[in-house]
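Thread: "does anyone have the structure for this chain?"

Original post by V.I.:
We have the sequence but no experimental structure in hand. Need at least a predicted one for the grant figures.
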Amino acid sequence: MGVLALGSHALIEEGAVYDCAVGYQITGAQNIFFNNFATNCPSPFQIGQGNTYGPLVNVAGVGDMSGIPGAGNPWANFAY
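Reply from O.Q.:
Generated one for you, tokens below.
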């Protein structure tokens, strides 16, 4: 597990997680999850209902990200 958020009313942003089974697991509610990165995690994001988050964008092996929907969003969360 990279980051586990069990509670509520947290802001989780601009984090990075590398080489883990689950990058971010957000099980609480009313959390805000923006601009995070997960690399080489089989399950990069597991975000439960009741949370707010930016686009979840998978860019593994893509190269130029400009054509990927959501990649230009400043609140996007990226899986590499």
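V.I.: this helps a lot. The chain has a mean pLDDT of 92.
O.Q.: and The first strand starts at residue 3 and ends at 5.
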